[in-house]
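On clarity, I found the account of how folds are encoded harder to follow than it need be. For illustration, here is how one protein appears when written out as sequence plus structure tokens.
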Amino acid sequence: MYRICALLLLTTTFAFAQENNRGWFFGVHAGNSDFSDWEQVSLDNFDDSDLALGFQGGFQYNRYIALEAFFTSYGETTFGNVALDFGGEGDADALGITLNGMLPLSRRLNLEGKLGIVFNDSEVVFTTLAGTDKDDDSGMGFVAAFGFRYELTDSWDLGLHYEALSPSLDLDLDFLGNSDPLDAEDLNTIKLSLSYKF
């Protein structure tokens, strides 16, 4: 009899926990974006990081699985070469959707991985004595992230993730017949997020 009661109590507790983690969520994120993989030729003036800002939202099915959509503006990178007398800037935005998997490490701390697809948009502009050249491109790419999510309360979550974005873009900027000084390659970001669960 006691075993049956204990089993019913455990089952009820588990079902309540699953239901308590189920629901819609929305939040914002900020972080540091790394453009270092964009460098195609030697640049003696290359600012390869900037502030990334964005928002995310989705639905958490249970404590282990969630579907998330996000938009991130990764900021700008500036570059230049004194010897060749050129300079310019590049930027990147992404709209994506990920499937999130969570592994509880404690009652409130979760290990979290994300995998999904993104729609990227990037632009590179550079200026020389001969004038200004510009190109932009949009396309699909892939995104993966790994980190931790901590439940501050039953409604508020704090996340810290390392994100790797691989855009499928081809920016065609030829400088005096040489290789492009900058191109939209992999973009890595450390993100801090805050989400509210409805």
Remarks:
- Residues 4-18 have pLDDT under 50 and may be disordered.
- The first strand starts at residue 23 and ends at 34.
- The two ends are 38 Å apart (CA to CA).
- Helices lie at 2-20.
